[in-house]
Structure formats: C-alpha cells, structure tokens
Amino acid sequence: MIVEKAEAVLERHGLCDHCLGRLFAQLGKGTNEERGKAIRFVLNMERSSRGLPPLERPERCELCGNVFERIPELVERMIESSKGIEFETFRVGSRFPEGIMEKERALWEEFGIETAEPINREFNRELGKAFGRKTGKETSASPDVVFIVEPYSGKIELQINPVYVYGRYRKLVRGIPQTPLPDFDESVASIICRAFSKAFAGKCVFKGAGREDVDVRMLGNGRPFVVEIKRPKRRRVNLEEVAKEINASGKVEVVNLRFISAKEAEEVLTKNHRKEYLALVLVEEGVTPKEAEEVARKLRGLEIHQRTPWRVRKARADKVRTRIVYEAEARWLDERHFELRLITDGGLYIKELISGDKGRTRPSVSDLLGKKAWCERLDVLNILDD
Length: 386
Ligand SMILES: [Zn+2]
Description:
The protein has helices spanning 2-12, 17-22, 32-49, 71-81, 98-111, 119-135, 188-200, 239-247, 262-270, 289-299, 350-355, 365-369, and strands at 89-94, 138-139, 145-149, 156-160, 163-171, 203-208, 216-230, 252-260, 274-282, 303-307, 320-334, 337-344, 361-362, 374-384. The chain is of the alpha+beta class. It starts with a helix and ends with a strand.
C-alpha cells in the first residue's frame, strides 16, 4: 500500500526524500528523510524487477524547493540573531508561505493520504535538532527564547521570553508609594526594579500582592511581589546579589527571592492573604482604656461591610465588600490615643474601618465607640500565609 501510493505520487510529482517521507510521517519510527529514502529504495527495487526506470530524487523538489538544505545556513543566522542573549532552552517556529501549505494539502487530497505531517512541523523539528547539535542548547515547551524563522527569506525573529521572580518586600520608611506617583522621586517598585533591570539587562515590571498607602510601612515577613523582566539579556543571575543591592537602599528590603513560572506569578498576585496591622487611633473627644478595650472586643470576628472608600472611588469600582476582622487587640496610650493590632481579610481598608468613611464602612471603630475616630498612623505588620 505504502509503496504503491508512493509510486503514484512520484509518477506525478518530483519530491525530495523529506517531502516523500512526510506523507507517511505517522507510520513507523525515524525521520521523514529516512522514511522517504527507504520507501524510494524499495520502490525502485520493485520497479527494477518490473523493468521500469527508477523514480530518482529530483534536482529540485516540486513541493519544498529543497528548503531542508537551507538548515545549516539558517542555524548560522539563528546564532547570529541571538548573539549576546543568555539562554539555555529554545523553540523554533517557522512561517511557510501559504502557497506551499496549500500545495501540500492538495497533494494529500489528490492521493487520499491520511498519514502525513505538515511541512512546518517537520521543518521546526529538524531545524531545532540542528541548532541544538551546533550550540548544545535544548528545546523546551516553555523555552527561554523562540526563533520565528522564515525559511525562504532567511528572516529570523527572536522572541525573548520574560523571567519572573517572586519575593517579599518590607517597606521600612513612610513616605514612599508602592508604585511611581507624581511628586515622589522613588517608589518601592523603582527601588526594586533598578536592581533587577541592571542584573538581567531587561525591562522590569513590578507587581505587588495588594498595596499599602504612601504613609504606611510594610513590616514583618513582607508583602509578596512578583517582578517580570521583559526581554532579559541575562538569565543566570544571582538573586542574592540583587537582594543585597536593594537592601542597601535602607528603605526597602527584599527576602525569599526565587525564580517562578508565569503561572505561579499569576497565583501570587491573585491570592488574597490575611493581614496583620498596627493602627494608631486618635479620638479627639477622648477615650478611656475601658472604651479602647471594648472596641477591640467588639471587633473580634466582626463582619465589615465596606463600600469602596471615598478617596479611591475614582480608581476602583464602586461596590460593597464584606471582610472579616479576625483578631483585634487594643493598647491604650493616652487620653486621646490607643493602638489597635488587627488581623483581617485582605482587601479591607483599615483607615476607613476606623473612621467609618462617612458611613461607607459599617460598622466602624467610630460606630463602635460612638465617637469620631481617625487612623493617625498605620503599619502592615505581616502578610499571613495560609
Ligand atoms: Zn521537498
């Protein structure tokens, strides 16, 4: 059957061994070229026994124009196009002219062939093998770089895949926004990204798992974050060195840096961690130790209904969120101040939990006290893991 079909094809079309073997790609093992050679060999023996002339490999393949012979040259171009880029793994994709893909499909149809493989798939594989042999790099499903090759024009496009790094940051001082803001020279993001951009020689994008306000410190075990470094020229970077450089800022410290996948990065950013806060509460009318204690007791286990705060209503969708206060402890300081240590669901706005935000947060510390209360200072002590 195979040999008969091959004979019918070759009597009408002059194909190279690659293109012949590829018609039967789903049968047996080996490369398409080996398949094509073997089929042609057996076919020509049979023909010889029937006194017929052999169906030799043509000078120029009618389907591919001997494109597989260009592989060594394309490998050189790939090496050239990736000079100065550090990578271990790669993938090859090729753009074949639509005319050739159509010609190939027409051939399958003409001879009722159902065991074939498209030309671009074989070409990607063979070019990848040749590049790997020459450079010692390996192919991977989630590679460091992707070569998009136009086999006929020889044009190579190099996609450099991003690097993702996970870490946790502590913000040791007040007065720095998490991400750049007008009127601020630096941000947590800019301090962190400066070191990453330099080390990886790429563009750094910072994303925090939630955020704290400019005037709020982030202490304890730090807030999870992810940096994405786009088009990095270097990948084998010592993350401890990067951490050292960031920590030398004296304003922001990073810990637990490690490489992660794009999928893990997504998970870090969407996970809603419980948080531990320390708030300094001001009560203008005055507060007694007993009142402070009472507020903390009422807060424990309380469900808070919080409409998007007035101050962020333009940046966030206006909706009512339900969040739980798990723990609350009060420490009375003086006639007008007490400290509140809280553990709450992520996404609860603490300043508004205290003030009540003109009735937008219910109940609030102001409600529970029956007096106006304000958050004078706030620190995130910890972001808790499950
Ligand atoms: Zn061919």
